[in-house]
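Troubleshooting log. The previous structure file for this entry was overwritten by mistake, so regenerating from the original sequence record. Sequence copied from the archived sheet and checked twice against the printout by T.R.
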Amino acid sequence: MSESDLAIVAALVVAWGALSARLERFDVTAPIVFVLAGLALTHGPLAPLGITPSQELIKGMAEITLVLVLFCDASRVGLPELRAEAGLYGRLLGIGLPLTIGLGTLLALTLAGITNIWFALLVGAALAPTDAALGAGVMANPLVPARIRRLINVESGLNDGIATPFVSVALAGAAAAHDSGTTPAQAVAELALGIVIGVAVGGAGGLLIKAASRRGWAADGFAGSAVLALAVCAYACSLALHGNGFIAAFIGGLAFGTAGGRQGTPLVPFVEEAGALVSLLVWLAFGIVAVVPAVQGLTWQIMVYAVLSVTVIRMIPVAAVLIGTGLGWPARAFVGWFGPRGLASVVFALLALESLGHRADTAVTVISITVLLSVIAHGVTAEPLAHRCAAVLSRTAGGPAAAGRPEVPTRKLIRHRSGGPARQADSG
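Regenerated output below.
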C-alpha cells in the first residue's frame, strides 16, 4: 500500500470516528460505510485514486482481525457465564451449529453450483457464525427479554471460534486437492496443538495479570496492552510450533477469561478497540476485492442459497435444538432469525480468496452475497421486529428461569435505541 493509499484509509477512519454516532441514527453502520467506500475507491467516482492493497496486506489484516475477535469474544464469555444456562448454550453450539454447518454444506453441493466437498464445507462453515453486533436493534432493546439477548449474544461470541476448525480443515482439503498446502489430517493435528498452546498461554497470562493487578504491579496505561500482546502471543506461539494460531487465540481467550477473573475482564475492551479498528479495514478490503466479483458471478442458484442461508439453514436447526428448553416457538423463531452473518464470515472469505486464489471464486461469491443480504435483511428488521415481538417474547422466553443470570456484554459498542451515542447492551 502506497503512502497515498494509507492517507485515504486513515482519512476514512477519521471521518467515521467523527460522524459515526450521527450516521448510526439513520441505521448507517460501519460495515455499510466501509464496503461502499471500498466500492467507490475501486469501481466508482474515486477509482482514479487507484487504491490497491496487496494480497499479503489483505491476508495479514484478515488474520490479525480474526485473532483479536476470537480472543476478545472468548475472553468475555467465561465459565461462570456458560454454566448459568449450560443446557441452552450446549444445544445451540454443540448440536445446532454442527447441524447448520452440515445443512449448509449439503445445500452448497446440491444448489450453489459447488461440486467439491471441501469448498462446500468452506461455505457451510464460513456462513454458520453469527454476529450479534449487526443486530444492534435487538441487543440494545430492553423490551426484548434479557434471556433472549443473552442467548443470541453468547452464541455469537463463541460460534466463530467453534466454526474455525471446520474452515481450517476445508481450506486445507481444498489446497491438498491441488497438491499444495496442508492436508486435512495435518490440519486436525494443528488444531489439537493449538488447543494445548492456547490453554497454556492464555491461562498463564490470565494468572499473571490477576496476580499483578491484585498487588498493584501493573500500570493502568499498559495493562490493556499486555492483554492485546497476549492474544498475539498465543497466535504466534502456535504458528511457531506448527499449530493452528486461530484456535490458539480462541482457546487462549477462554483460558484468560477463566484464569484472569474480575481482574482480567476490565482489560478486554483494549483488545476490543484494536479489533474494531482493524475490522473497519477488513470491511473496506471486502468492498475493494470481493463485492464486485461476487455480483458479477451471481446466479439465481447462488441467490436462492443466500436466502436459504439466512433463513431455513439456520432457523430449522435452532428451532429443533431448542425444543424442550422452556422457550416457546415465537422465541425459538426469533433466536433463529437473528443470526446476522458478519465479520467472521467476511474474514473467512478473504482468507479463502487469498489462500486459494481463483479456485475459491464460487465459494467466495456465495459467502459474499449471503453476507450482503444478511446485513440488509437483519439491519432492516432488527428494531421493528424486536418492538413488535417484545410482548410475545416476554411470555415465551422461559419466565423466572431467566432471572438473575449474569449478562455478557456484546463484542462491539452499539447504539441507543433512541439513536444516541454508542453504549454497551442493556443488562436487562
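Residues 399-406, 413-428 have pLDDT under 50 and may be disordered. Archived copy saved in two places this time.
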